[in-house]
Fold:
Amino acid sequence: MNVEHRRAIEWPTVVLIAIVYLVTGSLVYFHESVPWWIITPLGAYCVALYASLQHEILHGHPTGNRLLNEAMMFPTLHFWLPYGRYKKTHLAHHNDQNLTDPRLDPESYYMLPEHWAALPGIKQSLYRFNHTLFGRMLIGPGVSVIQFWSSEFRKILNGDRDVAKDWAWFALSAAISIWFIAGVAGMPLWQYLLFVAYPGVSLALVRSYCEHRAAENHEHRTIIVEASPFWSLLFLYNNLHVAHHSRPSLAWYRLPAYYRAEKAQLLAKNDGYAMNGYGEIFRRYFFMAKEPIPYPNMAWLKRGAK
Structure:
C-alpha cells in the first residue's frame, strides 16, 4: 500500500507570504491616503521579499504539496518573471558544475568573449554600466525584462509549448493582480509598476550582484555575505549563498543555524569568498564593476565540460 509522505507545514513561511500580500494589498488599496514616501520603500521591500519567497516555493516549501505551495503565491507582485520559467531556469542554475558558465548557467551575467566582441560599442557601454551595482539597480530591471522577454518570445514563436504554457499561467496571475490594483483599488497600473514593482525588482537584484564569481574551481564561485537583519530577511538568508547551494532544500529560517555550525567548512569550500555585509558590496562596487563581462578564462569552462 502506498503511504503518502506528509511533511510538517513550515508556518514561518506561510505567515510571511500572508504578510507580504496583506501589506502590499493594503498599500495599493489605500494608495490615495498613504504618501509615496511610505508606499515606495515598503512596497518595494515587499516585492523583493515576494521574489525571495518564490525562490523558497520552487525549492519545495512550505508544504509537501507542490500545487498548494504555488497557489499561495500565484498572483504576481513584480510582473516580470513567470514562476514556471523561473523554476526551470533556477533549478538548472543549481547544477553547481556549470555555475557562471554563460553557455549553461541561465543566471550567469557573463558573456562568451566572442559574443562580447561582436556587440556594438553602445551596447558594450550599456552592459558595463549594468555591471556596476548602481547600474544594476537603476537599469537592471529594464535590461533583464528586455533580454529575458525577447528570448522567451522567440522560443514561443518557434513553437516551444512548455514556454508558452508558463507564460499563459503568468498572464492569468498578472490579470488577477491587475484586477485588484486597477479595478478594485483604483490605482493606475503605471504607478504600481513604476513606484512599487520596478524598485522592488531593483532591490532584489542586489542579492544576485555578488552572488557568484568566475573561478577555476566551481566550489569557489559562490559567496557568503554576513548581512544585517534588514537584508537577511529580505533575501531569506540566501545571502549565505554557499549554505543554500550546499543544502538547497533547507528552509530559509534554518539556514543561519546550519551556517553557524558549518561556517569553517563552508568558508574553506568557497576559498574564503565572503563579504562583511552589503555595505561592503555597496562601497566597493556601487560605481565599479566587480569583474569584466567576458568570461575571464574559457579554459576553466572547457576543463569543467569534460
